[in-house]
Amino acid sequence: MDEAVRIERLRALPSIDELLARPSLAALLQAHSRPVAVAALREAVASVRARVLAGEDVRFDERDVPLALGRASQPKLKPVLNATGVVLHTNLGRAPLAAVAIERIARIAAGYCNLELDLDEGERGSRYDPVVELLCQLTGAEDAMVVNNCAAAVLLTFSALAGGREAIVSRGELVEIGGGFRVPDVMRQSGAAMVEVGTTNRTRVADYEAAITERTGLLVKVHRSNFALVGFTEEATTRELAALAKARGLLVYEDLGSGALKPLHGEGLGSEPTVAQVVSAGADVVSFSGDKLLGGPQAGIIVGRKAAIARLQKHPLNRALRIDKLTVAALEATLELYRDGRDETEVPARAALLVRPEVLEARARRLSAMLGAVKHRVVPTLSRVGGGSMPLAAPPSWAIALARSGSAEAVHQQLRAGEPPLMARIVDDEVWLDVRCLADTELEAVSRAVANAH
Ligand SMILES: *Cc1c(COP(=O)(O)O)cnc(C)c1O
User: Would you say the CB of residue 149 lies under 6 angstroms from ligand 1?
Assistant: First the structure.
């Protein structure tokens, strides 16, 4: 296309005001609010301009407006189909909530509630009161509290228990959580001075002991939740640190991160300490996430000794890091499922981790039958826990491997652009759909998404 044609095509692009006034578009635009109509028309015109500038000979076409309107009126945050096989995918919102937790949120969100009101006394209560007893029952701890997420729990605990003092931590446990956030940076932000002991692979209780001074406030243990250390390794156990702390009048804080409330006995899952084990080993304060292995809402749960938790509650940061009523509602409902022994079937993340391979194979075969003419194979695969939990776990699963048609990345991009978007895994330049995190009710939508992308 020569320069004169290009300039002519650009000049011919309609203005937004002109499009808004066009009788031929009136019926279509009237179905949407003005801000949506304007955003859609801007997008439609901008995309033609971009194509002309890239050298294509195209003009504005009214037939592109419905699609632009559809996009502009869609919420930006929307459900996606998770065929990655990663159960706790941070980019995909981590744990899906249990049905009873969703119902509880809806009920509480719709009106007023006793969030900070003790109904017996008619006095002000604490917002996480509804979950304290459940958390104590499930972990064996004396007391509990909840903040916005586990990083907030780390910040609050360090600020309240080691601010202006020293916190001793092993060099083998200075974890980066993900997204560039590092536990040592969060600790430093609290005003605690970090004293690193041991080496990357070996740290003994004697290393902590040798580092204790009159400025020491806390002995710290960070669970290696998103990486593993194998080979010539050694670490001080919680029990050893607790004995040392007791003898020296100090406290032990363990950041568990992943936070399994009950053991996860399943093929390929390995072993993960439960919160109750760490509490019974003598940790004074333990923190963990609400939306990792627990499978509840985003939250940072802190359990431990009454006196230590009281210090955290009184700290000014507690107010800044507090949870909202919807989190309390969802967390209470989720913890009730654990209390009642219904967690393995009704907490979706836990069910997805514990589901048997035969069930997954049958699900993959059902999806296969729906795919009709789309060429594919049904293959065994390994899923992942994700969300910075259980890095070595590789539970056996089943997947649909789509036959190659162009680059896998290009097919995946089309799947992501679908409605709903479908997130897959790329294996050797093939698109694989791991069925572990797909509900049976989603298979129909998955097969439609695949057909549309072909
Ligand atoms: C994931 C993790 C955190 C942060 O938890 P969020 O709930 O994502 O804030 C902190 N510590 C450890 C050890 C973790 O694994």
Answer: yes
Q: Can you tell me the mean pLDDT for 254-263?
A: 94
Higher pLDDT, 370 or 266: 370
Domain boundaries, the chain: 3-72, 81-90+351-453, 99-346
* Residue minimizing CA distance to atom 6 of ligand 1: 150
| 116 CA to centre of ligand 1 in angstroms | 27
**CA-wise closest residue to 234 among 272, 205, 196, 214:** 205
Is the CB of residue 258 below 6 angstroms from any atom belonging to ligand 1? Answer: yes
Ligand 1 touching residue 390 (CB < 6 A): no
| Residue-wise pLDDT tens digits, 79-98 | 999 999 999 999 999 999 99
CATH of domain 99-346: 3.40.640.10
Contacts 24+ apart (CB under 8 A), 370-374: 370/443, 370/444, 370/446, 370/447, 371/400, 371/447, 371/450, 371/451, 372/447, 372/451, 374/402, 374/403, 374/447, 374/450, 374/451, 374/454
Q: How many Cβ atoms from other residues are within 10 Å of residue 116's Cβ?
A: 13
pLDDT of residue 132: 98
Which of 38-42, 220-224, 450-454 is the least confident region? 450-454
Within 10 A of 348 (CB to CB), how many other CB atoms are there? 18
Q: Is 283 in the pocket of ligand 1 (CB under 6 A)?
A: no
Q: Which fold has domain 81-90+351-453?
A: Aspartate Aminotransferase, domain 1 (3.90.1150)
Tell me the CA–centroid distance for residue 412 and ligand 1, in Å: 29
CA of 153 to the centre of ligand 1 (A): 9
- Fold matches, 81-90+351-453 and 99-346: no
Alpha-carbon separation of residue 93 from 79, 86, 113, 224, 296 (angstroms): 10, 11, 26, 22, 11
| CA–CA dist 126, 112 (Å, integer) | 16
Length of the chain in residues, anyone?
Answer: 454
Query: What pLDDT was estimated at residue 415?
Result: 96
Q: What's the mean pLDDT in 277-301?
A: 98
The mean pLDDT value for 35-52 works out to 96
